[in-house]
Task: structure prediction
Amino acid sequence: MGVEAFYAAATHTLFTLVGLCVGSFLNVAAYRLPLGLRLSKPSSHCPQCKRRLAWRDLIPLLSYIFLGGKCRYCGKRIPFRYFFVELINGMLWLACSLTLYESNGIAAALIFALTLSTLLCMAICDAEHMMIPDSLQVSLLLFALAGAFLAPTPAWTQRLYGAMLGGGFFLFFYFLSPVLFGREGLGLADVKLMAIAGIFLGAASTALAIVIGTVSALAGVCMREAARAGQRRLPLFDGDKEFAFAPGLILGIVTAAVYSEQIWSAYRSMFAGF
Ligand SMILES: [Zn+2]
Result:
């Protein structure tokens, strides 16, 4: 194995391991931030029996497997979501390293991975608590600005238009939905999220993110209504009260960020014959 191949393999491994640990941290953040609790203190403990968890209870993926998904001290079930978020986040970080490390450098891969992790944490907070903490919005904004400094495209003007488009579109519906439906359909958090997404996506991808995100969110509403009609709960999250819009929007943002060029060129080729 050449030196470069060795560095690449080491980077991919490191990204995966850090991604798993960040995933573990996201679980803590998604639990504590919406409740207004501090991230640093108290140290990790079981919410049921309040026992402090030792380092061997906090190893991503492995602790969950070896404990059989139960608290070591009181036997209370640990939600599967904890395992799932660690796994997904580790895979996202590996994907960032595989696709961006060699072409765009380690800083770009790191910023994109941190952006995806923040979006994942936002999706969980919104799905479970119907809110997105402002600290996550600020983190996302900082990562978006850092990404804008690293990547020459889209240009700053396009990013500005993206922010205006994403924020403006949902601000319009934020004010419109009480008039149309007599109730709040969107939160201001969705408006902020889409404005920040516009900065790292640029205008063209933001337009895609709006379409894909809105369709996904509405599909989520239909699925939930169907599940409710059948007296069943959706897996992973118990959707009782209102419907969280942000997870669908975030799916749209990520899809647009990754596949924007392919989607636009497929769109253009549809009309190439005319
Ligand atoms: Zn316990």
